[in-house]
Write a structure and sequence with these properties.
The complex is a heterodimer of chains A (327) and B (329). In chain A, 75% of the residues lie in helices and 1% in strands. With 327 residues, chain A is mainly alpha-helical. By secondary structure, chain B is of the alpha/beta class. Classes of the chains: A mainly alpha (327), B alpha/beta (329).
Chain lengths: 327, 329
């Protein structure tokens, strides 16, 4: 029984290990140092942004605007480093750009927080709106300053944050640090307990004295800040400010969270699960590319995995509520 | 339900084990990695199909990946192609600036890269860039139209559609169109320039607004046959979708030479189309990929295809040479 319980509670972890072993044996070039480095680097930005979004999902909400933070942060940061008067002195331009990129994430998060907590707009609508607004601003800004949709010519020293050359551990350390920080917040602070409690039952939480509005506002802020940090890493990795950055990334972000095992209905899951989900999704994409599997098959597989993961979550929750009602 | 995820994953893993598969024969083959932005228009579909067919014909292995219009995803996919040990990469980039990092990584790994129909921005020079001569073709097709207008003593209230600012081809076509219009100011009176982002919705709204504000428009210049649906729809709404010679006809000068563009020319809705060679450039990319894999180097790193200017006047002579002609009914 103990083995069964272990398998049930660590399904994704075991599947990940199994997938890794099978890939190592059967997929050509999978274990090359170049590919393993790629695999880890490709996980970093997804881990950062999915971790930020996990805060919101645990709480029963959603934040579509994270991809617009990637885009807006990327082009504004790139402008500061490549086109603004500060660009002549990279020593100043790089830290200023990094701070501004993260601050953009915080600002978008704060706007979402106000919309959800004060204006009482559902997070689905509020963040969908801000996603459109800030994505549009990213394109507008780039057109104004560069007459294009991307900005290049960034200082080479900035690329260290994206893992260029021998510095490939830098973004991995950044991503793991912020993932661990999120884990600590959730597991070891009162704020973390409040997140799960609101995700499970917001009304009961409010009655029992949980500062619901303040917690939700802080979660929006955290989601935005994590997206801002992801924007720094992703811009450094792509060596350009790209106004369409993150356009098709949301599906991978949600897939990582859901496949990891965090409930999209809130109240259960965590950052360990998101880390596993990120590694799993990145592994699947990496392996499918290495094997030359047509892109439409990759899309179908990803879609099926999200569908089954979400379906399992719904069914487990429905069963629980049914048995609770019966008892 | 967790069982379902497990089953799906196990099926996938089993598939990996069975499909793994570089056989010894595959190992000896030249392996080309093909990275496409998307298959959003008939041009790219024909270009992609031509490359796949040519690779098959020449007996080389081709792995194709699709970025679905995402520059970041394209860079990640190319990293995976490099890791998979391809000999050459052919790339139709989403964004000429953002792709520069991939070109550099491929070069560092000793893998030559061929840019297919979109150039890379910045200082990095790929092994070969195969392009249509967009600016010259756009200039030529509009100059032909202008000369005809001068000879007939006609003037045109003009709407100029523009592609995507991130797409160097779109910028080049706009330059060509603008140059011809500057040369013939007596013919063209540009009442609206509409950036479309290669998006039908944006193009349609822009056209509807422009036609509302300027009901006497009698020429639309488009940088791609891809934009025919919104052009047709907006002109129909304005009661101006008519053939050459009919009242209310609005002249259309287009670019690409796909099946729709050729059909419009044949049916008398359009006056001219600058036809790119979608299949020919695809074949050239694959040919050169094989040569590069065999250690050859091109004498020039930029190949520009002159294209074919097809007009209502030379239809019988030129149309059949265009790749989109096969779809004409």
């Amino acid at each position: 029984m103990k083995v069964k319980a272990f398998i049930q509670s660590n399904t994704i972890f075991l599947l990940l290990i199994l997938a890794f072993i099978v890939s190592a044996i059967f997929v050509p070039h999978f274990t090359s140092s170049y590919n393993l480095k790629n695999f880890l680097l490709q996980s970093t930005d997804l881990l950062l942004i999915a971790t930020g979004l996990t805060f919101i999902v645990l709480n029963g909400g959603i934040d579509f605007s994270v991809t617009s933070v990637l885009a807006l942060g990327s082009v504004v940061g790139a402008y500061i480093m490549a086109l603004s008067p500060l660009s002549a002195t990279p020593v100043i331009a790089i830290p200023v750009a990094v701070i501004v990129m993260i601050a953009i994430g915080g600002t978008v998060g704060a706007v979402n927080g106000v919309a959800v907590t004060i204006l009482k707009i559902p997070s689905f609508i509020a963040t969908l709106s801000t996603q459109l607004i800030f994505s549009g601003l990213a394109i507008l800004f780039t057109k104004k300053v560069a007459s294009r949709t991307s900005i290049f010519g960034l200082p080479e020293s900035f690329f260290v944050l994206g893992g260029e050359g021998k510095a490939f551990l830098v973004p991995i350390i950044i991503a793991l640090f912020f993932s661990a920080l999120a884990y600590w917040i959730l597991e070891y602070t009162r704020f973390g307990r409040h997140i799960l409690s609101i995700g499970t039952n917001p009304k009961a939480s409010f009655i029992s004295g949980v500062p619901v509005k303040r917690v939700i506002f802080t979660l929006c802020l955290l989601s935005g800040l994590y997206a801002g940090i992801a924007s720094v890493v992703l811009t450094a990795r792509n060596q350009a400010g790209i106004s369409s950055m993150g356009d098709s990334m949301f599906i991978s972000i949600i897939a990582s969270i859901v496949i990891g095992g965090t409930s999209i209905l809130g109240g259960s899951g965590g950052f360990k699960q998101t880390l596993l989900g990120v590694l799993f999704i990145t592994l699947i994409n990496n392996v499918m590319n290495l094997m030359g599997i047509p892109w439409f098959i990759t899309m179908i597989v990803q879609g099926l995995m999200i569908l089954f993961a979400a379906l399992s979550d719904f069914i487990i929750k429905s069963r629980k509520s049914f048995f609770q009602a019966v008892s | 339900m967790k069982k379902l995820i497990v089953i799906l994953t196990l099926v996938l893993l089993a598939g990996m084990a069975f499909a793994n598969g570089d056989s010894d024969a595959d190992d000896e083959m030249i392996h080309i990695g093909l990275s496409m932005d998307s298959l959003e228009s008939a041009f790219w579909v024909a270009n992609y199909d031509a490359m796949v067919a040519e690779a098959e014909k020449q007996g080389v292995k081709m792995t194709s990946i699709m970025a679905e219009g995402d520059a970041v995803k394209q860079n990640q996919q190319i990293e995976n192609l490099i890791a998979s040990g391809v000999d050459v990469i052919i790339c139709a980039p989403k964004d000429g600036a953002a792709i520069a990092t991939s070109v550099k990584k491929a070069q560092d790994a000793g893998i030559p890269m061929i840019m297919n129909n979109r150039p890379v921005q910045g200082d990095i020079v790929p092994a070969l860039t195969v392009l249509s001569d967009n600016q010259v073709m756009a200039y030529d097709v509009l100059t032909w139209f202008a000369k005809k207008a001068v000879s007939e003593g006609k003037t045109y209230k003009t709407i100029l559609l523009i592609g995507n600012l991130a797409d160097e081809n779109a910028a080049e076509r706009q330059k060509g169109h603008e140059a011809a219009m500057v040369e013939y100011p007596q013919v063209f009176d540009v009442v609206s320039r509409i950036p479309t982002e290669w998006n039908h919705e944006i193009a349609l709204k822009g056209l509807q607004n422009a036609l509302q504000a300027n009901p006497d428009v009698n020429l639309v210049i488009t940088p791609s046959d891809f934009l025919y649906p919104p052009i047709k729809s907006s002109l129909e709404s304005a009661g101006k979708w008519a053939k050459i010679g009919e009242p209310n006809h609005v002249a259309i000068v287009s670019f690409d030479g796909d099946g729709v563009g050729m059909q419009m020319l044949k049916d008398g809705y359009s006056e001219a189309d600058a036809a790119q060679d979608a299949t020919g450039t695809g074949v050239i990319c694959v040919d050169w990929a094989i040569k590069l894999a065999n250690g050859e180097s091109p004498s020039e790193v930029l190949f520009k295809d002159a294209g074919i200017i097809v007009t209502v006047d030379n239809w019988d002579e030129k149309a059949s040479l265009v790749w989109g002609y096969a779809d004409v009914k």
